[in-house]
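Components:
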Amino acid sequence: MRRLASRLVRPATLALLAGGALWLWAAVTLWNATASVPDAPSLSPERFFSSSFLESSASFERFLVIDGLLAIVTLVCVLVLYARRGHHLMRESAAGRIGTGMLLGMLGFGVVWLAELPFGLAAVWWGRRHGVSHQGYVEWIVNSFLGLGSTFLFIALALAIAMGLAGPLRRWWWVAATPLFVGLALLFAFVSPYLAPDTSPLRERGLIADARALERSEGVEGTRFRVEDVDRYTTAPNAEARGFGPTRTVILWNTLLGKDFKHSEIRAVLAHEVAHLAHDDPLKSVGWMALFLIPAAALIELLTRSRGGLARPEAVPVALLVLVVLQLLVTPFFNTVSRRVEASADWSALEATHEPAAARAAFRRLSTTSKSSPDPPAWTPILYGSHPTIMQRIGRPTPGNGSGSAEPRRRSPAPGRC
Amino acid sequence: MEQGVLAVAAPRPVRLVVSDDMERGRGSVFFRLWFALPFLLWLALWALAAFFVVIANWFATLFRGTSPRALHGFLARFIRFAVHVYAYFYLGAEPLPRFDGRPGYPIDVEIDPPLRQNRWTVGFRLVLVVPALILLSAFVGSGGGFNGSSGEVSSFGLLPAAAFLAWFFALARGRAPRGLRDLIAYAISYSAQVWAYLLLATDRYPSSNPLTAIGPLPAREDPVRLELRDDLRRNRLTVFFRLLLAFPHLFWLALWGIVALGATIANWFATLFAGTSPAGLHGLLARYLRYQLHVGAYLYLIGNPFPGFTGERGSYPVELHVAERTPQNRWTVGFRLVLALPALLLVFAYGTLLFTVALLGWFASLFTGTMPLGLRNAGALALRYTAQTYGYLFLVSGAYPYSGPNVAPTTPSA
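Structure:
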């Protein structure tokens, strides 16, 4: 008891407890920054979708879920193997410790890409078979391979920072590195609207007028509205909100603007994305990332000590494994956060448009055109459910109809996709 | 070139023999295109006949295992005539060639008598020769061009580029420079090997090794030169992702390049007035050149390990030696950018070769785990010339880049 008491009053322990309390407060504050909305009553999907569609969409998603699960298992197995044997690749480097660490980090992601290639191809095949995707296999491989380049750049930069700080700061590198990473994430969130490829300004006059009215009612004047050309790759519709402050941007996929969707339905999607910007969701996703990074970086430091800490390139494969496993473990929690954010955006969109029928029709059509199952098994949202299910979105009570109201809205986190 | 790994192997069955004295008549150089026309026409007619002969030779060799002497002799003479014509046309030699392809031309080719050939390689000769033809296109090129309206730049072969520069030099000085002449001979040597392989005169695969292409090479101790300690081993995983792994280096090189550009401008002013590069600028630019070479060697598979980010001397198996600064002629300093233009044209042509070497080397390294010696040395030659050109441009060295293959001196200098 005396020993425990003496340990508790050590400065490091006190600092740890204080840090933990601060972290917890930040997490609770960030959670409460998103207004909760009334739960959706349980509705029968047969009221809104044909039984043949329910069967085909369930089958479509079942394959992708299994494919995704197998990819995750493969990912973990490959990274475990890489953590054990990857340091032998150090002989392929003539660089110093940081350069060698970069090489090991990039090769780790390269090995993962190779291992997951069959599952990605299987998903492309399945999407093509069901008419959701028409991207060629070779095109997909080449695009995926070249996309790895940005991952390599990112991991090289991250390791340069972490290993660079680990040299002088030893086991406390993560204290200095985390704010740097958060700063970079903020910078990326700020400039990300300009990194989207193949976008052009929104040209439909009716939609532009609606967009301007929505940004005025939500208090986010100055938002850019762009259209991304994706019909070369997919028929699935989507939209997203990026940026914050002067770079606030809503990006609509051109598949959403085809003849499948009515004007009122597109307006409902627009309102949803504008709501994300009004809630500062892109900015707050950086906040959640920061909350994840703090314990993650500390854990990486702890678990790489057997390899000499992150100052040594031998520790990089272990660090990769720890990071990816942690990400997988916290995914259910972050999906819960994301679903809360999306529900809040749905609610604000309904408050702005007062068109619940159009919103329901939009959700129906999103489901049918992308073949996403309206009411998936209860366990799949744990790993894959970043959005409420279609049935939850259709069935949610609307504002002002007496069946529920949201908590007072505060500006809130995560980035939006409809 | 450089202390590369020399292939100690049996003499090649197709050998270029160079006895040209580099003297060129200004008149014949000026009208070379017109004087070569009859020979080019005759070559085209001979090629038509050779086309039918090679079909017969293919069947005969496939069944007999050896080329019939008569067919082999005809095709060997055709290849010899083609070598003479190309050497004349591209200013590799001076006298008019004979129409009968008889030996004795200043740039000549020796082709061994017919030997037994593996029937499988004979049967699939058209397929097997494709990589060699791809590399040949980098040597002889499409002539090159720049479309101003579309901004497109087409590939510029090494042979046309070298001949273009040699034309101006020969007009001015009445002779071809050794480096350009040797480069022309090297390209013709590779062409001869490819044609001999394609036409079934030999089943020895063409080698692009510049150290063994044209016989004895000059020993040079250039102030900017390559030192090669690479063992040809290539890790398949890093080869597969080589382009992506180089991204951080390319990004860092671009940033460093901005600093190097500023340093070069400062160096120009300083050297113009002082006559010698300041030590600090010389050191910075030498380090940048070295790093540029390391990255180029890694990207184009001339070296294996992942390079460092600092251009540290002695850190990489493909190393650049940069001599200490020496006084430079102020006139050449003043007009350095203009004087470097011909070398930059050749750098562009060497770039095509380097890209092709990397492309073919990627496949070869993935399958065999090693980089073929000929490809590695051809790429190293291109890198060396590029480094020398940028060393000249950045005023790190006052020595004009040497365009042909060479070897390091065997005795250390005093």
